[in-house]
Design a protein that fits this description.
Layout: H1 3-22, H2 34-47, H3 62-85, H4 87-99, E1 106-108, E2 113-115, H5 117-132, H6 135-149, H7 159-179, H8 181-200, H9 206-250
Length: 253
């Protein structure tokens, strides 16, 4: 086996491995570490035979730059999807703070950080929807097809790929605020009610006796009613960012 074949396969592996390492669910802490590595290796073996082998004169010091470009290109797609995936956890954290559930924080293996129980529940449900809908396969398909547009070794630090990541982060913040909107409005209305009652009965601690109980009870009911809408909106946003990633890659970034 020639050196050119090994280098080409290594570049393919680098792009696929960076995507899998940045994608949600697949790179969760609970997933054994050898699974993403083996998956990247299998995908590289399947994709590399259909890729044109790099010429021998292309293997030089510039190969280091090409390797960095492969890693950045795969990571750009994975991070864009991961940013939107984190929107529902952000929304649930905002909701938990309004409902008084943020104090019961636990470790969330999908987000790799301490989050509230509501965020953990919604994140796991969203992760299941992400897998069932086949969006993880679509991401792998997009990066595999990108080798026909951006051959191994020619990827670089392209402005379009970086811009897609920044846009995904901004969309994550916007989507998280939108998903948490009903609960934020609920908290505002309860605070207004508590403020009015506090003026009517200044000697009674209205916030502790009414405010917290009302926020938690109404919040739980509102979460039960709005959770299907949150999950559908979140899945639609994930589909949009996957489609955007394909448009960026198909244009040759």
């Amino acid at each position: 086996m020639s050196l050119s074949v090994l280098v080409t396969a290594g570049l393919v592996f680098a792009r696929m491995a960076s995507l899998i390492a940045a994608m949600p669910v697949i790179s969760a802490r609970e997933i054994p570490k050898h699974v993403p590595i083996l998956l990247s290796g299998v995908l590289a073996l399947l994709i590399a035979p259909g890729i044109e082998v790099l010429p021998a004169d292309a293997i030089s010091i510039g190969l280091v730059v090409g390797l960095a470009g492969e890693i950045l290109l795969g990571a750009a797609v994975g991070l864009s999807v991961r940013a939107i995936f984190s929107a529902i956890a952000m929304a649930c954290e905002l909701a938990s703070m309004q409902m008084g559930l943020a104090m019961a924080a636990q470790f969330n293996p999908l987000q790799m950080q301490q989050t509230g129980p509501l965020a953990i529940l919604c994140t796991w449900i969203s992760g299941g929807i992400f897998l069932v809908s086949g969006l993880h396969l679509r991401c792998l398909e997009i990066v595999a097809a990108s080798f026909q547009v951006v051959p191994p070794g020619s990827a670089g630090l392209h402005e379009a790929a970086l811009q897609s990541v920044f846009m995904a982060v901004g969309a994550c913040i916007s989507l998280g605020a939108q998903l948490a909107g009903p609960l934020i409005l609920m908290a505002w209305m309860i605070n207004v009610l508590v403020g009015v009652l506090g003026r009517l009965a200044p000697r009674m601690n209205v916030f502790l006796s009414i405010g917290m109980t009302l926020s938690s009870a109404v919040g739980v009911v509102l979460v039960m009613l709005s959770l299907p809408w949150m999950l559908v909106s979140h899945e639609a946003a994930l589909r949009d960012v996957v489609a955007t990633s394909w448009r960026v890659l198909s244009a040759g970034v």
